[in-house]
Amino acid sequence: MKTASAVVPGGESTLPSKATSKFKRPDMLHIYTLLVMAFLLLPISAMVLFGFNNTRGRFNLQWQGFTLRWYRDVFAIGQLTGALKVSLFISVLVMLTATIMGTLMAVAIQRYRFFGKGIINAVLVMNISSSSVVIGSSLLSLFVAANVALGQFTIFAAQVMFSIPYAVITIRARLAVLDPVTEEAAADLGATPLKTFFTITLPQLAPGIFGAALLTFALSIDDYVITSFVSGTTLTFPLWVYGSTREGTPPQVNVIGTLIFMIGLLVAIGSGVVRERRNRRRLAVLSAN
Amino acid sequence: MTATAEIRPAGRVGRPERHQRYSEKSKRNRRRLTIIFLLLPGLLWLALFFVLPIVTLAMMSVSTGNVGQGWSVVGDLSSYQQAFSGYLPEFLHSLEFGVASTVLALLIAYPAAYWIAFYGGEKKTAYILVVLLPFYVSSLIRTISWQFVLADNGVIFGPLRRLGLLPSNFHVLATPVAVVGGLTYAQLPFMMLPIFAALERVDPGFLEASRDLYASRWETVRRIVVPLSMPGIFAGVLLTFISATGDYVNEILLGGTGTGVVGAVIRSQFLVNLDYPLASAISLVLMVALLIVVLAYSKALGTDDLMGGAAV
Predict the structure, then answer these.
(1) Tens of pLDDT along A84-110?
(2) Are A94 and A157 in contact (CB under 8 A)?
(3) Distance CA B72, CA A166 (A)
(4) What's the CA gap between A38 and A58, in Å, rounded?
(5) Cβ–Cβ of A265/B286 closer than 8 Å?
(6) What residues of B are in contact with residue A105 (Cβ under 8 Å)?
């Protein structure tokens, strides 16, 4: 670093060392980045804010004073609460199913060579890069042609399908940084493949599996487009919210959105803290040796 | 990692020999069985609910019939003719909105991702958390929130209007601007994250070398940073373009008359008009069109491992 900047005539660094960027010229890019962050937060802030709005009409568009009324009455709209329950139920099942299937597939793809791997990868890429409206409409045409009744099962089937590739990606990313040497050592010491998987691979994979579970849950509970094609008369939370836009979305939707946001944030920060701690412990162990 | 240190030396001395008892052939069979066991559940699901539906969609598009009597595959191409002749404006709108929002998202995201990756310092994690925050809010609620923000008497334009700073015919909601804005916002995190991940992998040594060779900051960005972050740009553009072009939620909630998109046509043909053959034809045309664009684009920019790019 030092020798490098010494070569530059005048010794002035264009990469800001902290002192120069802070005092000599305000970094325009820094300000720009903060503006982008504000842009990202704008509709989220609007959602949170209007959950506290003391609105009286049907449309919750203008600020009319602060209230906690909607937090007290958050479950007052029976249909909305019902839709939320359906969403949570389906999403938990989707999370479990897609994460298990994705983990197994990821292990096969990352750890074994076999015929047809290229095709499987192509299917996964196609799945992720397909437009939701195409996927939704093709599922509906299948269910209609095969006379499958639309409802919770078809929603579940569709959501597991589009979640699997994301689970595979997340777990493969984790597998790629794991050292297969420990697995080989276990096999050399006589452990069966199944035992190796459960005692060696799985514990090391845990963070990846946790990430995949969070991601598939989030994808599932958020999906509107594909679900709207295959839901029949079943209402999930996003479907109810979409339907409500015509007559004015009630503040309860903002409240539920805010609560989900807070829970997601806590989980994210919590897992970040856990990871940080583990890294620090690992570092301590390494430096002690 | 500590778990790996715990491989017990184990008193089971007999095991390795037992292991060797398996002939090469039965070992190979076991391996094959393991792979099948691992792949089968997921593959079956994808075959049933991803591949098969697209085949059905193709068959439905050349069928005739109706909801009451069922459909028969007759190889009738009139639905395609109808799709092209009747819905060209919607296809073009979708393409315009898709391209506009992708370009905008790239232009907005890149400098910010660049700053976070190279100058974020200790606060890097905090910035990335903010980029991730929209994912914790239902995408539908985010779009509805833009209705609050952009409404004629909403939080921004309401006060400005009351102060007389806006002409009376000034609208943002229900115009193409609002649709592109909503799409751009929705795509921004998907654009920023892969670009950030790619920039993080760029060795700062290259930047120093470039500076040592008298390149300006701009020249370094243009000739070193951007080419090295190409995989991230590729992944970001691909993901955002496809979902923005097929999207109709932003159009329906933020658009107005004359902003119709092909996704909305597919939706209403399928769910309201129940004209499945026509809807399937339009859907398939959209799929093939996107596929062609994506293939041409991958050929031009050449990143063979899309999964790798998306994984980061």
Answers:
(1) 999 999 999 999 999 999 999 999 999
(2) no
(3) 36
(4) 29
(5) no
(6) 38-39, 42-43
Q: Is residue B12 part of a domain?
A: no
Contact A217, A95 (CB under 8 A): yes
Pick from A203, A187, A119: nearest CA to B39: A119
For residue B178, give how far its alpha carbon lies from the nearest alpha carbon of chain A (Å). 13
Closest by CA position to A170, among listed A204, A200, A203, A209: A209
Map residue B1 onto helix, strand or coil: coil
User: What's the whole-model pTM score?
Assistant: 0.84
Angle at A67 between CA A62 and CA A71, to 5 degrees: 110
| Per-residue pLDDT reduced to its tens digit, B14-48 | 444 455 555 778 888 888 888 999 999 999 999 99
- pLDDT, tens only, A30-63: 999 999 999 999 999 989 998 999 888 777 777 8
CATH architecture of A76-251: Orthogonal Bundle (1.10)
Q: How many CA atoms lie within 13 A of A56 on its CB side?
A: 2
Chain B hits for A182, CB-CB cut-off 8 Å, are: 4, 7
Q: Which of A16, A129, A224 is nearest residue B238 as measured by Cβ atoms?
A: A129
Q: What CA–CA distance (Å, rounded) separates B3 from B68? A: 61
* CA angle centred on A169, ends A164 and A173, rounded to 5°: 150
CATH number at residue B156: 1.10.3720.10
ipTM value for the complex: 0.83
Residue A6 has pLDDT above 80, yes or no: no
Tens-digit pLDDT profile for residues A168-215: 999 999 998 888 888 888 888 888 877 888 888 888 899 899 999 999
Q: Measured between alpha carbons, how far apart are the two ends of chain A, in Å?
A: 29
Within a domain: B69: no
Return left, alpha or beta for A53; rule: phi > 0 is left, psi -120 to 50 is alpha, else beta: beta
CB-CB under 8 Å, B142 with A43: yes
Number of structural domains found in chain B? 1
Cβ-nearest to B137 among A44, A182, A191: A44
Sequence spans of domains, chain A: 76-251
A177: tokens are 């940084």
Cα B246–chain centre separation: 10
Surface-to-core class of residue B2, CB atoms within 10 Å of its CB (0-12 exposed, 13-18 middle, 19+ buried) = exposed
Q: Chain B window 154-213: which residues touch A at a Cβ cutoff of 8 Å?
A: 154-155, 158, 185, 188-189, 204, 207-209, 211-212
Task: Give whole-number Cα distances, A191 to A187, B13, B16, B19, B94, in Å.
Answer: 5, 11, 9, 9, 56
B157/B45: higher pLDDT: B45
Q: What is the pLDDT of residue A7?
A: 39
Q: What does the block give as tokens for A172?
A: 């493969």
Do A285 and B57 make contact, defined as CB atoms within 8 angstroms?
A: no
Residue B79 lies in a domain: no
